[in-house]
Amino acid sequence: MGELINALSHKDPAVQLKALRAIKEIGNLAVNKLIAALKDKNSDPGVRPFVADLLSDTKDQRAIDPLIEAGKDNDPRVRSRAIYALRKFRDLRVLEPLCAAMSDESPDVRRSAAYALGNVEGEPGVERLLTALKDENADVRTAAATSLGELHDPRAIETLLNSLMAETDGYARRRMAGALAKMGHPAGDEFLLSQLTSPDPGERYSAASTIGDVGAPRFVGRLIEVLHDKNEDVRMEAAQALGSIGDKRAAEPLLAALKSESYRVRAAAAKALAKIGDPRALEPLTAALEDEYRPVREAATEALKQIRGR
User: Fold this and answer.
1) pLDDT above 90 (res 25)
2) What is the DSSP string of 9-52?
3) Distance CA 221, CA 201 (A)
4) Binning pLDDT at 50, 70 and 90, where does residue 26 land?
5) What pLDDT score does 20 carry?
6) pLDDT the model gives residue 38
7) Phi-psi region for residue 73, left (φ > 0), alpha (ψ -120 to 50) or beta?
8) Full set of structural domains in the chain with CATH
9) d(CA 245, CA 256)
10) Burial of 140 (C-beta count, 10 Å sphere; 0-12/13-18/19+)
11) Does the CA dihedral 182-183-184-190 come out positive or negative?
12) What angle do CA 142, 143, 146 make, to 5 degrees?
């Protein structure tokens, strides 16, 4: 086990991945070893953040207190990963340390805490997230807005509206709008729909992605139109968003996208059709098994399995 832990800091990513897979196979029996590795401050600096990730994956209650303690470590990398790892534990013990981490000097730690608070209900967490909408770091503001959208707390609407108007970072603004849209506020919808017509393809792409995260059927008609966007990445993201929403109105447009000149759009369409599950897609997906591009063939294979298995 010690050799596997050390391999996590190997310079070769393939060696790291092999070690990760081996440790996961060992399963929960390794929790005590992982906790010991997390506490070992004499280990390689790159090891302990990886260990925090692994403990998070176990969801073992024994990991909570050691992760909370690691969230106070001198190394901001360890603090950040330990705090983020706590998102997997729906336990009241994690709320106070996550709120405390929102005041950390490291923006990476504050960002991790903001994302983690999206999985923990409680008034103190909501209050800290609302305050974080004014953080000096745009990534922290983005994380706070994302988590407020997950929590669906109506107390956040007014602050989100004000922050949306004042925000200068484009990605943070889209996440704020997405949070408002998740809570059904029209200002969120209006902003995201306006971004779909932006001259900047990056903004159109991000808007489609955010709409997919919102997952509301009211956006289906507009996303269908975006399947014809001149930018390949935007079309691909629109297809993925339609899959995330899962509305059957998108089936025929996605079947048309399955014939796109872009193999990336074809693959995205196949994956979206799998989520929608319309049996009309069986024949076109079967034909896609002969596509010249492997990602399309793989997406079609998986889609057929999912639709036939319904």
Assistant:
1) no
2) T-SSHHHHHHHHHHHHHHGGGGHHHHHHHHH-TTS-TTHHHHHH
3) 19
4) low
5) 77
6) 93
7) beta
8) 1-149+173-197 (1.25.10.10), 227-243+251-310 (1.25.10.10)
9) 18
10) buried
11) negative
12) 85
Number of C-beta neighbours around residue 154 at 10 A: 9
Cβ count near 2 (within 10 Å): 10
Instruction: Kindly give, in sequence order, each residue whose CB lies less than 8 Å from that of residue 134, ignoring residues fewer than 6 positions away.
Output: 141, 163
- Residue 256 burial (10 A CB sphere; 0-12, 13-18, 19+): middle
Dump pLDDT digits (tens) for 119-153: 988 889 999 999 999 999 999 999 999 999 999 99
How much is the pLDDT for 279?
95
H or E element that contains 283: helix 282-288
**Separation between Cα atoms, residue 296 and residue 310, nearest integer Å:** 21
199-209 mean pLDDT: 97
* Alpha-carbon separation of residue 152 from 50, 97, 127, 183 (angstroms): 31, 22, 13, 6
What is the CB neighbour count within 10 angstroms for residue 65? 12
Proportion of the chain above pLDDT 70, given as a percent = 97
